[in-house]
Amino acid sequence: MNGKYLDKKQIMVIADSLVGMKFKELNENIDEANKGAQGLTIESDAFGIVANSRKEADFVLAGLELKTTPVKKNKNGTISAKERLVLNIINFLLENTENFYESSFWKKNELMLILFYLFEDDKNKGEMKIIKSYLNEFNSQDLNIIKNDWQIIASKIKSGKAHEISEADTLYLGACSKGVNKNSLRRQPNSEIMAMQRAYSLKTTYMTQLVRKIIGNSQDLESILKSDENSNILEYIEEKVSKYYGMSQQGLCRKFNIISDAKNLNEMIISRILNLSGKISKSEEFQKANIKLKTIRVEQNGRIKESMSFPYFKYEEIVKELWEDSKLRNLFETTKFMFVVFLNNGTEYVLNKVVFWNMPERDIDIELKKVWQKTVDVIKSGEIVKEIKNNKWFTNFPGMKENIIAHVRPHGRNKRDVCKLPVKDKLTGVDNYEKHCFWLNSNYIKKIIGKC
After folding, report:
1. Can you say whether the dihedral through the CA atoms of 268, 271, 277, 282 is positive or negative?
2. How far apart are the C-alpha atoms of 337 and 358, rounded to whole Å?
């Protein structure tokens, strides 16, 4: 059987028949060492498609691309995508950067047959089970955002800045790094700088919402964009929020009938400005795009008092990571931040601006990596505490003065809020230590938001 010549009806009959099957039922000798073994098994053993790198979709006559991707069950009972859905490699030199509908992304992935399987840690690849077949066609609202995402990627390629592409540049459609390592490089137009090989991808957060919609745990997510007319959601948000610049927190609370001592007060203010009944962080667009809202307070003299904290790391886990796959790198590689800036005018804090930002690739892989690497080295060495003065413990973790971007300091409820160490601390002998996390330096944040 040459699957690429099957028609749509034949394809769907086969796809539906696969639901409930284990991969070993298709191939008893599935390659456990091959990360893409499940996808190759579906292609070759279920549909008779030989592995290829064709520009057109896998099923030529039907115009259908075939994808296999894992989902996972969470401890709270919900289901999520395990990873991004990686699509086709981007040939920077040959990609059509002028017309979305002539791009390799659209020609290859306009219509996709996606086979979802359940990933379980305690099972080998052959034992995992296919749980859903789904024919994907992008709805109009998602497609509008994806078009904008593609334009951002295409613009960087066209401008000779493919080496500066980051997944967090965009919302739903990403350009993820795709290669064995950082030496997997490609030529690009209008620049002599070699760029990291990348592939189009649908982000993990986007895929999670798709999975929950078609398989289970579906949530009724409120949408910020109320019609298909608005395609650039970031510009839309800035336009709406800018109408209230100069208003105080208290004034905004009164206007939108918000209790002033409520938790997440500033998020509630922004949500009401956008006519959302719930939280903006729970909106469809923020969930799919992995946008995180952070509030920044700026004093009259332009100073930002507080650095910005992120979730604490577990000592035993971080020492097992490689930088390329680390939680810290993934956080900044895939997250776009919405900074809501409140400025102290002398008497109260007033809404000053919103800034959408993602960390540049260079900052991630040079400066941020230095902070991560030193942190890992300190934990592995067992030399976290460098000295004790007046009953206060001082650490060897990277401080704010050592790096222009980030530092490490405590982030627990108190000194008794600890995590287990992989190696006992040599100076104190403790095998548990106060929780710590990475912080963005206040001066770095100040440069991001600019003059207020």
Report:
1. negative
2. 6
Q: Residue 73: how many CB atoms within 10 A of its CB?
A: 14
Per the CB < 8 A criterion, the answer to whether 289 and 207 are in contact is no
Task: Give kind and range of the element (H or E) at residue 347.
Answer: none
The CA distance from 435 to 420, in Å, is 9
Tokens at residue 177, please?
A: 């790094």
Amino acid present at 51: A
- How far is it, in rounded angstroms, from Cα 403 to Cα 406? 6
Asked if 73 contacts 119 with a C-beta cutoff of 8 angstroms, the reply is no
How do residues 264-273 score in pLDDT, each as one tens digit? 899 999 999 9
Give the separation between CA 208 and CA 411, rounded to whole angstroms.
Answer: 29
Residues 6 or more apart whose CB falls under 8 angstroms from that of 60 comprise 4, 5
| Per-residue pLDDT reduced to its tens digit, 156-184 | 999 999 999 999 999 999 999 987 666 78
Q: What phi, psi does 38 have (nearest 5°)? A: -65, -45
The per-residue pLDDT for range 48-83, each reduced to its tens digit, is 887 766 678 899 889 999 999 999 999 888 999 999
What are the CA-CA distances from residue 42 to residues 93, 133, 198 (Å)? 31, 12, 24
Q: Which residues pair with 129 in a beta bridge?
A: 22, 118
CA 198, CA 176: separation in Å to the nearest integer?
5
Strands 436-440 and 308-313: antiparallel
Q: Do 274 and 240 meet the contact criterion of CB atoms below 8 Å apart?
A: yes
Reduced to 3 states, what is the DSSP secondary structure of residue 227? coil
Q: How many CB atoms lie within 10 A of CB 121?
A: 5
30 DSSP assignment: -
| Short-list 342, 343, 310, CA closest to 327 | 310
> Partners of 195 in the beta sheet?
186
CB 215 within 8 A of CB 99: no
